[in-house]
Amino acid sequence: MTDFDYCIIGGGVIGLACAHELSHHGSVLLLEKNAHFGAETSSRSSEVIHAGLYYPGGSLKERLCIHGKQRLYQFCQDFDVPHQTIGKLIVAPESGAEELQQLLNKGQRLGIPLQRLDEQQLREMEPEVNAHAALYSPGTGIIDSHCYMERLAQQAEQRGALLLRHSEVISASEREDGWQIAVRSSDGTSHIQCAAVINAAGLYAQQMARGLGVEQRHIPDLHLCRGHYFSYQGKSPFRHLIYPLPEKNLAGLGIHATLDLGSQLRFGPDTEYLPAGSGPDYRVEPALAATFADAIKRYFPGLKTQQLQPDYAGIRPKLHTKHETTADFVFHRPCNRPPAVHLFGIESPGLTASLAIGSFVTEMLQNKAQT
Questions:
Q1: How many angstroms separate the CA atoms of 67 and 87, rounded?
Q2: Which of 170-179, 205-214, 243-252, 262-271 has the lowest mean pLDDT?
Q3: Would you state the torsion angle of the CA atoms of residues 20, 21, 25, 28, taken in this order, to the nearest 10 degrees?
Q4: Where in the chain is the domain with CATH 3.30.9.10?
Q5: Which of 136, 236, 122, 247 is nearest to 255 (CA)?
Q6: In Å, how far are 45, 66, 118 from 89, measured between CA atoms?
Q7: Average pLDDT over residues 86-100
Q8: The domain 4-47+146-220+327-365: what is its CATH number?
Q9: How confident is residue 369, by pLDDT bands cut at 50, 70 and 90?
Q10: Backbone angles phi, psi at 183, to 5 degrees
Q11: Looking at the domain that runs over 86-139+222-318, which CATH code has it been given?
Q12: Span 292-319, mean pLDDT?
């Protein structure tokens, strides 16, 4: 006998979205080691609902972002999650005109609404932005990610899912009918039987996969990449999100300007790969303000460096180094073993794609999708 049909390890936005989806199909237990859901990667993002423009053609990132975007907007409307379709401007200097055209062509192929703006049209829309041309993405939005996670949890719990915090998985062993999971909590160590496991442990997914017996050849290398954010002191000069052209190989989307639902302007993230073997470090050094200012002034020349204040940092679980082409999401379902799905490298656009990822995991467990 099993206690639960599904055990989800990790209570970030992806684990919660999986709980939301799987709770339609059976009993669900979610285990989160921290005191709060989404305490790591999920609470340290730009909170942007992406259009799906940047990712390699046919990739899981592209497919799940485009599918997930529509579902996320619908979820926000259905369950009263604060959000706003604020729109985004991708701005380019004269030397970036060809790259901008390539993005426009790609958007048209994917059915993503885009409008090309010349310098005059851009200034009419955002007078403080300096660029040769821009693409306007009206479907890009912002979301209260904390409220979104709360609503995912509430909906799963209403269907009987049990979501536990302060609950750390310390070991797992195979059984004929599934898995036995050892869990450490404030009440001590307990053992739970489940039919299937979903490893949504984020920064610790590789470590968890090894503990669940996945062969090393199926576990992609993990590269922790820190992204810093600086807040802007004063009233925002922008009404839209402002993005430079993405970095080469999509190492990052450039230090962009984002607004939250309270109209607070922030800039970030940058990309700083942490040394191999190091753990997450969320410090934001004030001295980085000068580097940020240099990048931001390329499209916002009116910025004064002293207007930048350290805000927060996030860590992205990348599957490629800064010298390699961007890696796709990796979903691994081991064969000839009790059912399990391991999610590796879930970085941006993970928030936008979260509900689509939950559905994809559900299909994998029902043998309807392949990795």
A1: 18
A2: 243-252
A3: -40
A4: 86-139+222-318
A5: 247
A6: 19, 18, 12
A7: 94
A8: 3.50.50.60
A9: very low
A10: -125, 130
A11: 3.30.9.10
A12: 97
Tokens of 331: 């979903």
